Amino acid sequence: MMIRRLSVLDYKNIFKSILFYYIIRKGVKMLEMLVNPKKAEKRPWEMFFVGAFYATVSLLLVKWIFSSDPVLSKYIGILVVTFCVMFSIPFMYYAFKNEEEKDLRIKGFKRLLIEHNKILLAFMFLFFGFIVAFSFWYIVFPTGNQSFRAQIETYCMINKPAHFDECISEYGVKQVSKTTAFLTAKDKIVNIFANNIYVLIFTLVFSLIFGAGAIFILAWNASVISSAIGIFSKSNLLNLPLGVARYMIHGIPEIGAYFTGALAGGIISIAVIKHDIHSEKFWVILQDSLNLVIVSVVLLFVAALIEVFITPAIF
């Protein structure tokens, strides 16, 4: 019986088959995690790469499809956020559904909060992936400012309202105007806290009405923060880590508060669909959601204190 020796081409084909199998296997695992929050809770840090992947693919797809369109090319910043939302909605929906089921199984707010923290951590890594990827591409793309035009306009409206047109023309890359320098620390805390509560209310309402729809506000905020990081970094990749640190010091508790509020609204939204609003189960879920809203408000107040007293002292 003759045994044929393997040729170099055979070895190449075997290697390609193994590599293809490995890629498919990893891809399946990734897809499972995207719609299975239980897997994400075990390794939440992987959601960072998922968020970075979503942001990158969204930006590349939008630029490829819409950059040549004379009308839609002006709204690339909005379209990128929309694509990110579409990618994220399945994971957000199943996460809310899973957390709503926890409310019915687990007794005691402390134990529930510990369980909720697992998925909140996955949300935070997803959001952080958005920020890092958007910031990176803002700096790398020669027309990065055009790609994030809507975000730059939002940035200028917040930081240079008195010189909005000049800020837009320069895209805010030279300096940041301190429009609230005349305010006392107490006034700054009140202004920042009130603005953050406003965003929290919108996040909560979007979650209540649209379920996973709150991800739109959160993805939009990620893109605006990324533009601010790009401006702070002065379009230099070497300054990117410093820019991320500049906004994440107070951004971590602030974004954590928004995701906690989104979770509270999402849980109620799922409960309304699955249970009668007059049932005992619904009132258990409602109580947990109200507790989460209180936690969100406390986190926002802490974030305002950090933004006023700690961040300026470091940067």
Question: What's a quick, concise take on this entry?
Answer:
With 315 residues, the protein is mainly α. It is built from twelve helices and no strands.
State the main characteristics:
single chain; mainly alpha
**Fraction of residues in helix:** over 70%
Please give the largest β-sheet. none
Strand content: under 5%
| Rg (C-alpha, Å) | 22 Å
Shape: globular
Identify low-pLDDT runs: 172-181
Report the end-to-end length measured between terminal Cα atoms.
77 Å
Give the domain tally.
1
SSE sequence, one letter per element: HHHHHHHHHHHH
Structural class: mainly alpha
- Strand count: 0
Q: How many H/I helical runs?
A: 12
Quote the average pLDDT: 78
